[in-house]
Design brief:
Distance between the termini: 28 Å
Shape: globular
Oligomer: single chain
Number of strands: 9
Strand order of the largest sheet: 7-6-8-9
Number of helices: 6
């Protein structure tokens, strides 16, 4: 559990860090030896959804998701990315607070074979603008509240497509549990982190 109230499954799981939260991997001896585990974050979650569908994966405040629900919800986000033709190597910024939506979108980006670019919501507006001008994003997924605080009328986002972070979890646009994640290689970029900016602009 972190300071914002994000909590995940029991202590018998192994915890894999994903951004600001941790994703539990049930029965790591099985998951780590399966070929899906070698294919990245999305394939690992898909594996858990197939083999441990009812296991608790994520809890936030009064909400919880099992692995099947986690994979299905990430698929709804992934459909939005597919509509924008996000694919292998594209960079997707996540300007999202410490909420479950961050994880849903991170899994969706990984499933597309794209690169996750987390944007610290604690950055100042100037720092966010500077990051956006250098990150080479194809898409920015953002909380409306956070984006509203950043003046982007200077043309910073001229070539960047925007998506709201909210996900309609009633949607059926998730293509099922057996949908095929993009093929990736071990040396493909997965995440690009910018520094905290404590000694200057984030870089």
């Amino acid at each position: 559990r972190d300071g914002a109230g994000m909590a995940i499954a029991g202590s018998h799981d192994w915890w894999v860090p994903v951004g600001n939260i941790f994703l539990p991997v049930p029965n790591p001896r099985i998951v780590m030896t399966d070929t899906a585990r070698q294919e990245g974050l999305a394939a690992s979650v898909q594996y858990a959804a197939k083999h441990f569908p009812d296991r608790l994966a994520l809890r936030f405040e009064n909400q919880s998701w099992d692995y099947c629900e986690l994979w299905r919800t990430a698929g709804i986000a992934g459909e939005k990315l597919r509509q924008l033709a996000v694919g292998h190597g594209d960079r997707v910024g996540l300007l999202i607070g410490n909420r479950p939506e961050w994880l849903f979108w991170a899994i969706a980006v990984a499933e597309a074979g794209a690169v996750i670019v987390p944007i610290n919501p604690a950055y100042t507006a100037a720092e966010i603008r500077a990051l956006l001008s250098h990150a080479g994003l194809l898409v920015l997924v953002a909380d409306a509240r956070l984006l509203a605080a950043v003046d982007l009328n200077d043309g910073t986002m001229r070539r960047v497509q925007q998506l709201p972070s909210e996900i309609d979890q009633r949607s059926t646009a998730h293509q099922g549990i057996d949908r095929q994640a993009a093929a990736i290689q071990p040396d493909d970029d997965a995440v690009i982190y910018f520094s905290s900016g404590s000694t200057g602009q984030p870089k």
